Prior knowledge:
heterodimer, A: 606 residues, mainly alpha, two-stranded antiparallel sheet, B: 476 residues, two-stranded antiparallel ribbon
Amino acid sequence: MNLTIILAVTLVLAAASFFITRYNKMSGGFTTVLSSLFALVALFMMRGSIGEDFSIFYFNFSITTVGWYFSVVMLIAYSMTSFFNPFWMEKMMYPGSYNFLYLLSMAGTIGMFFAKDFITLFIFWETVVWSSTFIIQLGKSRKASYIYYVVSAIGSMGTLFAIMLAYSVSGTFVISEAFAGLSGGVAIAVFFTFILSGLAKIGIFPFHVWLPEAHGSAPHTFSPVLSGGLVKMGAFIAFLSVTAFPAYDIFADMFKIMGKPFPIYFLMFLGAISIIVGTLMAIKQEDAKRLLAYSSVANGGYILIGILMMDQVGFAGGMMHLINHAVASAAAFLAIAAVAYRTGTTKMSEMGGMIHRMPVTYLVYLIAIISMAGIPPMGGFVSKWLIFQGLAKDGMLFLAAAAFFGSIGSFMYVFRPLSAVFLGQTFTRDLKKKEVGFFMMFPMIILTLLSLLTGVFPNIFLRVIAEIQTSVGIDPITLANRTILTSNGYLDAFRVFIVFGFGFAIAFVLFVVRRKSRKVELMDTFTSAEFIHTRELLHYSSKFYAPFERLYDKAPDTLTAYKKLAVKVGELGGMVESLFYGHKPEKTVFWMMAVGIIVILIGGVV
Amino acid sequence: MINPVFMIAIPLGLAFISLIFKKASKWILVAGVTINVVMLFLLEWGSVAMGGFRIPYGIQLMLSSYSFTGLAVVNIMFFVILLISFDKVEKNSVVLLTALAGMNGMILTMDLFNLFVFMEITAISAYILSMKGKKPEHSFNYLVLGSIGGVIFLLGTIIFYAQTGTLNMAIISSPVQQSAFDFSSATLFIPFFLIFAGMAVEAKLIPFGGWVKGVYGNADRLTGPLFSSVYAAAILFAMGRVFGELFVLNETIVIIVVITGLITFAFGEAAAFRQTKMRRILLFSSIGQSGLAVIMLALGFYFPAVLLIVNNALSKFIMFTITGKLQESYGTENYKELKGAFYKNKMTGVAFSIAALSMAGLPLFFGFYAKLNVLTALFGGGNWFIPAVILIFAIVEGAYFIRLLISLWAPGKEGEYADAKHAVETRKLFKPISVAIIFMLSLVILAAGLFPDFAGKTITSGAKAPFTMSQLKGGE
């Protein structure tokens, strides 16, 4: 199965889906399902062609393990989410374009991960950016789409600058050779500008502002792709910035903090800030999707820290967190989408007790958040454990503290939608709602099983990651059978699962055997003879963490900084307009004379 | 094989004829433009000495691959604009034919004074055409500034002639001219600056182009694309000629030009960012692109410059035409009042989007190939400051184009899905044939973006350095 064929089929089906949607919207949606499943299977089977190089037109590709890994993760997100597409066609203003852009962005991501030279990578990257911009605008907010593009553009232009600067020194765009011969100030400039698009895409502070807007307001069927998939594109750039650009070698003589050269530590520090900011902001949210978006910010911080560590354990943890977060985040967003499909809202205060009506969705969401919070036996635990091990081994106190804080904070915020949306009392309006159909349940179940798989048998994935580690020249993580060995200890995930399963079994037996609890209606409560009318106020998860939130209520908002910057640019434009443009010739004549006099006076000296 | 002078003579002659046959003037216009486009491919290449005078003593016209590209852009775009907006010609056939003659002359000529004459002809036709916007104040502003620019150019030419004894631009390859004056003299930058300032008025550079906001801002469906695609291309190609032949002799003027171009680009994009009226967005974007092309031409990077000019010509044609039509049908050009205007006019919308994304330099479109070449050329010359400024303001450019597209495609309240019920009422825009033509042009942008090597080769043969005699000697 050849990459050319995969790309060609995807593009043909993209165009086809546009036309098919005009005749029958659901069929157009199904075309995206078909296309993404085909691509997933085909890419998965490409494992055997690792090491091949080839070109299509002027694009150059090289099949690498890391490219294979990233693209499979990305396609899991795309393909599972596509199952929801047919059911959302009615809501879209441009269903045909949505399907087309969905598949076009997918093709872009596939091409990107296998790029051999930076121009190929950049072309595919930017295609994904603009095609997803036009999908996000179909959702709940036009501003979100705009903010997404601007932050993305800041990143892209930085990376383009770095690629060109590196080209001027090394004379080539080929990824493995482009960064040769860099040193000193040029190296630092290239490093920091190159990783800008990575930081912007992952959503690292201060570029995280687009995540809550875009993930929160995108069409429900695209948010899982954004969060589970597209964010990982940034992780790929981060990966390249320490492997293709041999950061540890080039910066070997620089001032070191905790054994890491300063530029790298600075970025890891930004990752730690993202974890803290993401966690704290997530706790505040009232909308389930915005909450999950902030959680993506926090998890992005983990991934960045992990990848930048470039060591045996931490790097493996970062790479594994990629797939764990992708699967868990996609599953969580899909579960919320399923609830939104039935109830029409994602505001947590307007929902409740959906566990009674949508038990499977509840289970999917529960397992997803267990993984995101890093609790065994789900996959998130393994990757976070590995990252903690890496941080602890190097003695990086602040980063480890931030990582631990992020984990604890995540218990707080992931639980909130669970209790708000699924637990508690069902709203009258929702009493008759049903579970979503099998076609929508199928991807959620698959993702849940994947979460379990990564948690119970992590070595399956860690073996691939070990291959990636060897290919970039670091010691691979030590695996033995079902155990992961590190210098601080070892983890046998399967045994952990057995123990949990045992505990679960005991609890289940107790539950079945003992007397059932008595159901009490929400409004059936003592109120000192006052009448109660509004269910929302009694919803026990509204203002859940109010005392904690009050601690940082007045924290400044990064988005405001961007808005102020935009205003400043506008003001510059206004100054230009008033200085140089008008109805009367006098202004321009003045400027002509002024420029002329200056030029003639000092021109001879220049 | 036809003498290139007919590219100028035929439109000019037909202009006079259409004065006599007023009723048929529109058809004479069509005939003239069509003849020009056809002649384009039958021209005799090389240098033409007018009146039999030996070069460099007479006026010399040069059809090199560089001027051929210029002629192609000008004549073909003129033809397409005429096709789409024929109804807007009204009584302006004479002026249009004169303009075409003038622009062809600007691109072909190698003589400074001749260039002045053709620039004046082109400018006067522009002043008259700008009156279609019904804003006499702005047209008067344009008239005054254009005339001042012309006079300054003439002054520069006179000083140059007085200093060097020649008016022919082909100095580098002409030992005759070089013997008359020491062309490495630093004092040359004064006449060069005056020449530059004169051309900069028409080329919309800041601070010389104060007329642009009024004129382009009130341009209609005919004059908008005409000014932004055809006139812009003509003056930029002419400037490239002047830079390539003359300005390379003096370092000071190159620095001055590059600084002017960079400021123009940055300020133009910043000004575009705050606009809500579509024509204003487009005009400031044109100003910015003009600045960028000037930088490239001044530094001697002709291939990227031509790519920029071609991309700008194609995209601005599409965008100005569609904006003009929106203004006519909806009575407004404020994009905030035109939400969802493309909902029922999808092909028009797609063409507009392709043009806008190409201007923003996004891949899969021609503008990206132009941007790549600009950057590789600059970095190859060891320059990193100019690319940094370009990329920073490219963010601004992308931002306002995307903001524009989002508004035109997806109407909706914040907090709700995009919904057609918030769109402006559907009004008929273009006739299907016009839509087809515009759409096909946008497909050209897409095709050139997807297969840039093919597009690049077509243009490379047109964008070798405008050095003259060496081409004759070496053959092309």
